[in-house]
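Re: MGD structure - here you go.
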Amino acid sequence: MKKYAFIIDIAKCENCNNCFLSCKDEHCGNNWPGISLSQPLHGQRWINIRRRERGEFPFIDVAYLPQPCFHCDNAPCVRAAGNGAVYRREDGIVIIDPEKAKGREEIVSSCPFGAIWWNEEAQIPQKCTFCAHLLDQGWKKTRCVQACPTSALSSVFLEDKELERLIREEGLERYGGERQDAKPRCFYKNLHRYTRAFIAGTVATGDKLRSDCVEGATVRLLKDGNPVAEQKSDAFGDFKFDGLEADGSVYIVEVLSSAGERHTVEIELKKSCFTGTVRV
Amino acid sequence: MSEQVFTNCTNAGPVSVYVKDGKVTRMRPLVADEKDFKPWTIEAGGKKYSPPKKFAVAPYVHADRRRLYSEERIKYPMKRVDFDPDGERNPQNRGKSPYERISWDEALDIVAGEIKRVKDTYGGAAISGMTSSHHNWGIVGYKMGPFARFMNLLEYTPVLDNPDSWEGWHWGATHTYGFYWRLGMPEQYDLLEDSLKNAEMIVLWSNDPDTTRGTYTGQDSALWRQWLKEKGVKMVFIDPFYNFTAGVMDGKWIAPRIGTDTCLAMAIAHVWITEDIYDKEYVRDRTVGFDEFKEYVLGNTDGQPKTPEWAENESGVKARVIRALAREWAAKRTILSGGARGGEGGACRQAYGTEWARMMVLLQGMQGLGKPGRTIWGTTMGAPSDTKHWFPAYADLQGRVSTADIAKYVPMNPTKQRLWRLTLPDAVLDPPVSWYGEGFCGQSLEQQFTHFEYPMEGYPEIRLFYRYGGSFMGTMSDTTKWVKMYQSPKLEFVVNQDIWFNSETRMADIILPACSNFERDDVGEWGACGGYTCHASSGCNYRIVVRQQKCIEPLWESKSDYQILTLLAERLGMKEEFTDGRTELDWVKAFYESSDLPGLVSWEEFNKKGYHIINIPDDYKSTPSLRWFAEGRDCDTPDTNNPKRNTEKAKELGTYSGKIEFSSESLKANFPDDEERPVSPKYIPSWEGHHSEMYREYPLQLMSPHPRFTFHCHYDKHTDWLDDIPGHRIKKDGYAWWPARISPEDAALRGIQNGDIVRLYNHRASVLCIAVVTERIRPGIIHSYASSAKYDPLVPGQADSPDRGGCVNMLTPSRMVSKNVPGMTPNSCLIEIEKWEG
Ligand SMILES: Nc1nc2c(c(=O)[nH]1)N[C@H]1C(S)=C(S)[C@@H](COP(=O)(O)OP(=O)(O)OC[C@H]3O[C@@H](n4cnc5c(=O)[nH]c(N)nc54)[C@H](O)[C@@H]3O)O[C@H]1N2
Ligand SMILES: Nc1nc2c(c(=O)[nH]1)N[C@H]1C(S)=C(S)[C@@H](COP(=O)(O)OP(=O)(O)OC[C@H]3O[C@@H](n4cnc5c(=O)[nH]c(N)nc54)[C@H](O)[C@@H]3O)O[C@H]1N2
Ligand code: SF4
Ligand code: SF4
Ligand code: SF4
Ligand SMILES: [Ca+2]
Ligand SMILES: [Ca+2]
Ligand SMILES: [Mo+4]
């Protein structure tokens, strides 16, 4: 049985909001019988683009994490609602039945990922439907996927086996922290850009009067005395170790100049940071 | 009734419009038949690059349905309650008094009556009127068509637009490499292929293409930049703001203090000269005046060598970073991307912006401009694109109802008097005003040196102002002056014709409701503006001409601009002269017939299907921009407006010498003693920057680039869905505020927290915004987008009242780029900021 899933590459998302706005165009003011009632004009973010800035001026980066309903394999919302008010279709799409779920505000909090929204006026919980009404009419892609200019956001329709292979080959991850047991069917590439931290720095020679960037210096990252990563500084003398857990661990950044000098900086990693200029 | 699907086009992409029971239910990127696409392929580095069969439109287009039905639509003709054409006019109450609904008959009688009265009393030249820059898409209804045709019939005084998009490039870069027919932008042909094949690095200097989106070409080029990133092409961003392209490209960020880019450029030249790492052969053969420039860079003329250390002091960018950049640039095949179209960029809209733009050209001139991977390219145009089949675009004379040969009658305006947009308020309030330059100087370099004075001898001052659109509080400079102008009794009558309420609408005596492009018939090619940016649709993956079908009847009591002007013309006894005997649909068909489209698709098919894709021919030949010049060959690109093309001078650029001019011959001939736009470029500290007197009281620099989620005033305020995008407007206490971005340092110094309402102020005005505290902005700078559509003064009608709509242009100076360069300078603006306690 083939099922749908979202594949989202964080490194390709430029926060253009095409997905968010196309979702509004499809669902605001439009009822899609059996699948969904109109999304209110404001306040619901069926695809919620989360934003993160990391680092400090001028060593920063930004990441965007578009988050639709994950259409979980083992969906807590389905279990909590009971009685078919929220159900999972054979194609993997999780639907909130607009009639059966009427008046049941508690369904909103059954989603551990914050993907369900409450419609005060219609008294129903609502969320992304994977545009099931369109797929049922023969469309191949959802509105948001069609609108994405870079294919940061895409969808697949695959057998579980094929999906598993894709996850392996592309290094895809689920987002959702502790609640992996829900088995979200939304897989992220380059997730570390959003969830992890970096240590960046720059290597230079000389003093205030005359200084140059050092390209090609060997920079090592050590944790508990063990090297965990190694890089060469680039033409601007910059290096950046990414994908680190911001758990307060202590790291040592070790810079080895071509003359064999060794300089170290100690970092307690609580959030992405800049070591300052390492002078060699 | 069953569902119908219509085709239409917006200024950022084509759409399919779904209509049920006379109501639009969906608007999505146009769905074309798979078989109609023939994607091109570029081979580079052993890979093949080919675009998907779809149109990647800009975000706001997805919200166009909401804009169509917006409560911000002007629904009925209206009259200011205390305006009486036969009695008290109360001009002082413009911007203050409310409006009452009137009938179309009454509105048209008043407008036609006033036109007739003013014309009879003072002459046609006492009538003036103007549009804004950007119109809803479609050549038939375009502002340069019907509106211009109507105003020409009245023999009005036109207001010349300053070339706001191009400023420094128009007034500066043209004197280094010509291209005045492109207002200072270089050609962009086949540069996507060149970059994929040859580029190793791209320096995006004052450029955020993921935001500015090729101006009209939506997001097709976002994918190209992904390809370049995947190829490992290094990207460097020189911008005081960590912009959105920098974010997704993960580039190197260099953030100079505003107003010091020229200084940075000089230091790069200094490294190249002193380390002997520039293309000496190219400089010898393809340029003139290098020695004079070199003397200045080395400090032999003024005692100050333009070293990276000197530049660090001015710009705040580390000397070692400047040196590293200069060396990388020289060592790698590096493309320079100096703004949305190759050139442009916020750095060109400021004091002495000419010098920066000239330096952009000259830096590439030192590295072999036009050689493989060494060009000037915005990253937004130059896909393989058919240029053989012509379809008129709005800026083409043959694409306008007012000037096209398809008209039986073309009205000529005999009035010689002109106004200058940026000094219009001064012209009304405090004449005379004078300036150099004929607006968009696209015909010759000399047009920049024509002197104008208003009022012109033998002509009256203006008394009637016909405003079509109404965006200027958010887009022109020092805009409290516009409020004052509108309240002047000298303007006896003001009419405003627009679709939505904009920042100036409520300054009029009569307001006329126009309808959108979805409520009338039209035709247009996506991305194609023609004229000074010919072949701009090469920023799209596919050329597509769209038959813009009327999807629904005009809403409320709105009418198409063409209809409104027809009704006025009728009352003035010139209906036939105005319409040429044609309906809007007749004009659509006539433009189709005048084009090369009939050879490709029948009218019946085009009209019914609603679009035609013009694919590239099988024998497509790539002719990269300026390669001909670098190789000393005749120009082989299809740059039709290049006057030397196909002549015996076809190897030459459009400068006097035909070469790149480090020392400008055109400036030497016309303004040899201008210290502010010297013959050879110089770094001149800004007249409103960190060295100026004003800095002591107002130590923050305001930068106001082009808004990411709207197209200038289009969509802002009229499409409230955008307020749900965190970062367009931000809601607080039930109000959607305009964001002002501030660094954590500057915020802490002033006790400002994220989400606080803040007052941005200087001696010109106060604007209330919501603070966004972010590491994305260089300390010392406040970032707030231009082009708020909402002017909402705390005290309506009072010019100096704080505005909470977000028109930050109330703060920007009306001083020009330099004394002989009448360009706008919004990015030379000093302010202070404080928490607003209300
Ligand atoms: N601070 C700062 N200011 C800037 C800039 C900057 O970088 N910084 N950039 C400058 C630049 S490059 C530009 S191009 C300008 C743009 O500034 P403007 O030209 O002032 O802005 P637009 O949003 O294009 O204005 C469009 C107006 O026309 C109306 N309109 C659109 N379609 C129709 C139609 O079909 N019929 C009628 N009747 N009206 C219509 C719209 O409703 C709106 O009122 O801003 C300039 N201002
Ligand atoms: N979404 C959207 N797209 C648009 C428009 C729009 O309104 N909205 N407008 C269209 C029009 S009419 C035009 S003319 C083009 C304009 O296109 P551009 O002129 O290229 O756009 P800007 O936003 O003015 O500037 C681009 C970048 O320059 C940076 N910048 C500003 N001042 C300085 C400076 O002093 N130094 C440096 N190094 N960088 C600086 C800004 O932060 C910004 O990231 O965009 C077009 N595209
Ligand atoms: S993301 Fe939330 S709402 Fe969606 S299926 Fe999973 S648990 Fe249910
Ligand atoms: S799949 Fe459909 S419903 Fe879900 S976020 Fe995308 S557009 Fe919205
Ligand atoms: S449309 Fe694509 S690139 Fe744009 S915000 Fe959504 S996921 Fe990101
Ligand atoms: Ca900081
Ligand atoms: Ca908001
Ligand atoms: Mo512009």
